[in-house]
Write a structure and sequence with these properties.
Blueprint: H1 2-23, E1 43-48, H2 58-63, H3 65-73, E2 79-83, H4 90-105, E3 114-118, E4 129-134
Parallel strand pairs: 2-3
Antiparallel strand pairs: 1-4, 2-4
């Protein structure tokens, strides 16, 4: 009987210790009630291309403005260029991603801070749109 009481007490102690550990504030995590500035959020842009084209027009260049602003303001941030393609469209999707990459590197963003991902064709994906995200 005393073993079961001891085991129960130990279990409760461990449970309370885990609960206290979970409540501790981790480095970089917001304090309770703290509101993070907008700079800590993600920034995304959709760059539209004409069918079959990989040329970045003026509208596409303009849509990259918030991405460039974030990358220049936060030197440790990374941009992810996401394309959607299937079948023979991979070469066009890759060319579009490279056009966006060139636009960013041409404005001083190091290539090592840019990733390219082909997400394949998923439901609701627009093949003529390249998504760029910064975290």
């Amino acid at each position: 009987m005393s073993r079961s009481i001891l085991a129960g007490a130990l279990g409760v102690t461990i449970l309370f210790s885990l609960a206290a550990w979970a409540q501790e504030r981790r480095p970089g995590s917001p304090a309770p009630g703290e509101v993070r500035p907008a700079a800590a959020s993600r920034v995304a842009a959709s760059v539209r291309f004409a069918p079959g084209s990989s040329s970045l027009d003026e509208a596409g260049q303009a849509s990259l403005a918030p991405i460039l602003a974030r990358l220049l303001a936060e030197p440790r941030s990374v941009a992810t260029i996401i394309t959607h393609a299937a079948g023979m469209d991979f070469s066009v999707a890759r060319a579009r991603a490279m056009a966006v990459r060139r636009a960013l590197t041409g404005r001083g963003i190091p290539g090592r801070r840019i990733r390219i991902v082909n997400a394949g064709m998923s439901r609701g994906a627009e093949p003529g749109v390249v998504l760029v995200r910064v975290r």
